Every structure is written in C-alpha cells, then in structure tokens.
Amino acid sequence: MDETSTDVQSVDELMQRITDAFDSLPRQLKSVATYIEQHRQSVMMDRTSDIASACGVHASAVVRFAQRFGFSGFSDLQAVFRQAYTGAGGSQQTYQQRIRKLIDEKAGEASGVSVAREFIAASRTGLDELEAGLDDAQFEAAVEMLSQAENIYVIGVRRSFAVASYIVYALQHTKKRVHLISGIGGMFREQMRSVRKEDVVIAISFAPYGKETQYCVRAAQHRGAATLVITDSQLSPLARHASASLFVKEGSAFAFRSLTSTICLCQALFIALAYRLELNVEESKETGGYDD
C-alpha cells in the first residue's frame, strides 16, 4: 500500500515524494496529485468530495492517494498542509475564499468596477504567492544558465505567447542573441533546428500544457541544449526533466487567470540577468579585458 511512510515532516518533502512517484501513479491518482500540487494552500480545508469532483474521480480515489503515500486517510495527509500553512498562509487563503464567496453572491449583479477590483485583488494574491514560493536556488541557476548561453530561444503558445513575446523583447536589450520560436506557418520543428548544445531554450507553459511547447523542450534536450521551464507545477510534463524550473501560479477571478505574476517573474529574471551581465563587463574592464 505505502511506498513511503508517515514520517513526512514538510509539504516540500511530501511534494517531492509525489513528484518522484508521479509517473508510476494510475491516471486517477495522477489527477489527485496535480490538484494537490496546484492547491497547496487550500487542500488543508478542502473536503474529500470536493477534491474528487474537481478531479473527476470517486472520493475513494482521494483516500487511496493518501494511502499510497503512507497515510491512514486523507485527513492525515491534510494535517501536513495544515501545519505548514495555518500560521503563514491562513489569512491569505481566507481572503481568497472571501473573493470566491463574493463572486458567488454577486453572480450576474457585479458592476464593472467591482469586477475590476476583484480581479486586481486576485492578481495581488498571486504576486504574494510568487514571492513566498520563489525558489532562490532555481532562480540563481536560471540566471547563470542565461548568462552563459550562446543563443536564447523562447517558446510559449496561446495565453503564454504574450509572455514569451515580452521576455524576447526584454532580453534583446542585452547583448545576447535572442530568438522567438513563433511557429509561424506551423514551423516549430524548422525553427528548432538551429538550437545547439551551448544554447538555452526558455519554455513557458501552464496546464493543460501546449503540445508545441512540449515538443520544443524535447527537441532542445535531444540537441543537448539547457532548458529553463516557467510553469505552474512540479508535476508539469515540462518541469520534470528541465535544467531549471521556475513555478508561478496566477491569481484568478471570474474564471480568468491573470498574467501579472508570470510577467513579474520574467521581468525579475531579465533584470537579474542584465545586472549579472553588466557586472561581468565591469569586472572585465577592471582586468583589462576591454579597450577604453
């Protein structure tokens, strides 16, 4: 029954175990794993029946998921999240629940201004979560990868295309050679053919994860290029084999997800890279590496 034991001490430890076992999980349990990864701060209060409904599975599958990782039942698994988030994240989650309740109560009656304010509030919540969950080591690894890259290729489709276009625009203010994999005319394969071992491919994708983006990541890895994935979950098919991964979960209201946090993360990445590159230039000047 259990591949692990109940000596899990933290949410991060539990999520790492889930990530390691994800490929071997049955389809129904994969759905539960994905839900838990994407709702870390609410899962401690969610009812088993609600999670089952959201995942399209029977409630018994949620219990089996917990047992798969050594818990006697789902409430024991929830306790791990409750211990982690009751103090630090409880007020934030309560605020998110208030937003959702307000939306339900105002269905069909909300004014334009109230819609705007609720969406702005949801975006602000997303930014708070981005700051709290930023992985310092992965972010530094991403900056280092980009600073060493011969070429930087960027791929993002559908709602991620706007973000991909922005980061290409920003990175073109550095001395790096930057390329947008636009797929115009359906030519994703052709545009990926120039990727080499010394290059970095930035892939931006969120559930349900664009097939084109997944192809570009596989192609980059086949060619020996480094891959930087910006996505929403450790269980993302793009993240599990990436050279570095940055995770961002957008706030949402009225069934629309914001792009605020993703754009902010990309801007921070660009600024950190630009700072690193300029610092390297200054150090080279001091050692006589550049002409006056």
UniProtKB/TrEMBL annotation:
The keyword Electron transport does not apply. Keywords: DNA-binding, Glycolysis, Transcription, Transcription regulation. Residues 12-88 form the HTH rpiR-type domain. Pfam families: HTH_6, SIS. Residues 142-284 form the SIS domain. One of its GO terms (molecular function) is DNA-binding transcription factor activity. GO terms for biological process: glycolytic process. PANTHER family: GLUCOKINASE, TRANSCRIPTIONAL REGULATOR. This is Transcriptional regulatory protein. It comes from Caballeronia temeraria.
